[in-house]
Design a protein that fits this description.
The complex is a heterodimer of chains A (about 290) and B (about 300).
Chain A lengths: L7 E8 L7 H14 L4 E5 L7 H5 L2 E15 L9 H5 L5 E4 L2 E4 L9 H5 L5 E16 L2 E8 L7 H10 L4 E7 L6 H7 L4 E6 L3 H17 L3 E5 L8 H9 L3 E4 L4 H9 L3 H4 L4 H14 L3
Chain B lengths: L1 E6 L7 H12 L3 E4 L7 H5 L2 E16 L9 H5 L5 E5 L8 E4 L9 H5 L5 E16 L2 E8 L6 H18 L4 E5 L6 H7 L4 E6 L3 H16 L4 E6 L5 H14 L2 E6 L4 H7 L12 H17 L9
Classes of the chains: A alpha/beta (about 290), B alpha/beta (about 300).
The structure holds iron/sulfur cluster (SF4) (2 copies).
One iron/sulfur cluster binds next to helix 4 of chain A.
Chain lengths: ~290, ~300
């Protein structure tokens, strides 16, 4: 990790092979118990396609920063329709049809190949807003979220990276990672001190967990598992974790009151304080196993 | 031929369980699992695979140590910070440049600007796709390598294969388990589809996600239907979702109560309509009947309801 004077001392990513397993629930409640213990905490919602943590933490957003990515801009007067830009684009984001250049922003990764290659300088690099970063404070901690603009499919990883780059100095930063195991999730989990994987004890849960575990292994970050709705299924997840030597950090029971609190946007540790020790325990186990 | 895509603003809303049920109810359909990031439909439909093919989602750059003269051109043009000056020594220089695979987006800019042609740019296998037989018809599904890039392209492959299969077998319905979210895989899941069924839950985030995913669907101009799963967990928010749907002009075609039978059916490897002793299955049957009616504009495709 970079300079500890301006970076969080410990970055923990909360991730899951797929959505709907309770990742956000774990992330927000961990942030609240950590702040209650007196730690300086930052919570970063990096689920930039569907940021939901704000519903629970109800942060006062104090600052909004647009995130711009370089996009090609065509000066049709200079374009001779040679098609070199279309030929060089690996993402099919630019086409040259009958000598006319068409740019598909949604597919563009902003790599610059087209404007660097254009012999007529008809293409230039123009920053365009593809999302925002919002930050503020809530429940005694700093809250940051990223949000990608609808239809800007390729922009998620850069926005995740921008959110992470905006993390300042603190004792602990908790990242609510995007679901899945592809580019945006990797951008959120890579180079963190610990990954907390949230899963359910069902065949879907186990299957998605195994894929997430493979991904985290490739990134070489220590990890542990939280089992949500722990009593709805069977013990295949526990057996898998034992076989793979992955610690189970805690088990959240299946409980209608938890589901209802979630549906209302309430924090579990506040609405149902009897569960606070569970989250404190998970946090303590993460702190012991993490690399700083 | 009609193609229905089931999507949700976020994962875990019961999308896959519904698609498996629709497959059982539709009688004759080609199935496609486009949730390539967390493909789960096969866990219920127990496919027998008869064709598999590897998938390359893009290319990756690699610098040849002996060719690199450390001129730093590649680092200057790379916008993803993927070129690092910590490569191994060559015979002539102490340190060379190196591509960090995790950061590399496969754009090839470095390749084009390297004066000594030191960068190789080759396709990388990032996944696999399969054609299988299930008890409810043929299915196309895929698996993306962990951390794999370009799930959107893989989704397109799966949909194209499903379409070809449907044409070959003269099957007039394609049922697609779409990707969750609003990113590249879901865009690839829905473009050009005949209809989208959005599945949501009565939570504040479910409401929020529905609005976002609907904005995306509208962006692509595809007719959308809505189903609220676990609607009794929070009836007040279910009402708000219904009101939002009305305002947006989206028809609510069904509501399904919260029922642990979905999990029990999953543990048994069946869809809920095949699972004995669940009254919730009737809700799913009614939902399918309504969806099939909308799809066929009055002339529903085979409807074994
Ligand atoms: S910037 Fe890169 S991705 Fe975008 S259109 Fe140009 S070549 Fe394609
Ligand atoms: S441009 Fe080519 S020669 Fe120059 S540093 Fe990069 S790889 Fe080496």
């Amino acid at each position: 990790m970079s300079d500890p004077a301006v970076r969080p001392a410990l970055v923990v990513a909360v991730a899951s092979g797929k959505g709907g397993t309770g990742k956000t629930t774990v992330a927000v409640n961990l942030a609240v118990v950590a702040a209650a213990r007196g730690l300086r905490v930052q919570l970063a919602d990096c689920d930039v396609e569907e940021p939901n943590a704000q519903i629970f933490v109800k942060a006062r957003i104090e600052e909004t920063t647009p995130v711009a990515l370089a996009r090609p801009k065509l000066d049709a007067a200079l374009c001779t329709g040679c098609g070199k830009c279309a030929a060089v684009c690996e993402f099919n984001a630019i086409a040259c049809i009958n000598g006319r250049v068409v740019i598909f922003d949604e597919l563009c990764h902003g790599c610059g190949a087209c404007w660097l290659i254009c012999p007529e300088n008809a293409l230039t690099d123009e920053p365009r807003n593809v999302g925002v970063i919002e930050s503020g404070s809530a429940n005694g901690f700093r809250f940051i979220q990223g949000r990608v603009e609808i239809g800007e499919a390729a922009a998620s990883p850069p926005i995740v990276r921008a959110v992470r780059a905006s993390l300042g100095k603190s004792d602990l930063a908790i990242i609510d990672a995007p679901p899945g195991t592809t580019c945006p999730m990797v951008a959120a989990v890579n180079e963190t001190g610990f990954v907390c994987l949230v899963t359910e004890p069902t065949p879907f849960g186990l299957h998605d967990l195994t894929i997430a575990v493979e991904t985290v292994r490739e990134l070489d970050v220590p990890m542990g598992v939280v089992i949500n709705r722990a009593d709805i299924g069977d013990d295949r997840v526990q057996r898998y974790c034992a076989d793979e030597r992955i610690p189970i950090l805690g088990e959240i029971p299946h409980n209608l009151r938890i589901a209802q609190a979630y549906s209302r946007g309430d924090l579990i540790v506040e609405a149902l304080p009897e569960f606070a020790p569970l989250f404190k325990g998970i946090l303590a186990r993460i702190e012991r196993a993490a690399v700083r | 031929m009609k193609e229905l895509i089931v999507i949700s603003g976020k994962g875990g809303t019961g999308k896959t369980s519904l698609v498996a049920s629709f497959a059982a109810l539709a009688g004759r359909a080609v199935l496609a699992d486009c949730d390539v990031d967390a493909a789960d439909l096969h866990l219920i439909l127990d496919p027998k695979t008869w064709h598999r093919e590897s998938f390359s989602g893009g290319k990756e750059a690699r610098i040849l140590v002996e060719e690199c003269i450390a001129c730093a051109r590649c680092q200057a043009v790379c916008r993803f910070g993927a070129i690092r000056y910590d490569g191994p020594p060559s015979r002539t220089i102490a340190k060379t440049y190196r591509v960090e695979p995790i950061a590399c987006e496969g754009c090839g800019v470095c390749v084009r600007f390297c004066p000594t042609d030191a960068i190789v740019f080759q396709p990388v296998v990032t996944g696999e796709w399969f054609v299988s037989e299930t008890r409810h018809g043929a299915m196309v599904h895929a698996r993306l390598r962990p951390g794999g890039e370009n799930s959107g392209k893989l989704v397109t492959v799966v949909r194209t294969q499903a379409r070809e299969l449907a044409e070959r077998d003269q099957c007039d319905l394609i049922l697609v388990d779409g990707a969750p979210g609003i990113g590249c895989p879901v865009v690839a899941s829905i473009t050009g589809a005949d209809m989208v069924l959005i599945v949501t839950e009565p939570t504040l985030s479910g409401l929020h996600d529905f609005e976002r995913v609907h904005a995306l669907v509208r962006h692509f101009g595809i007719p959308a239907l809505l189903c609220v799963n676990k609607h009794d967990i929070n009836p007040a928010i279910s009402e708000r979702i219904a009101a939002t749907a009305e305002r947006l002009g989206v028809r609510v075609v069904g509501t399904i109560p919260y029922d642990t039978a979905f999990t029990r059916a999953q543990l048994d490897g069946v869809s809920i309509v095949e699972y004995a002793g669940s009254s919730t299955a009737d809700h799913v049957r009614r939902l399918w009947a309504a969806v099939a009616r909308e799809l066929g504009n009055g002339t529903a495709p085979e409807e074994n309801v």
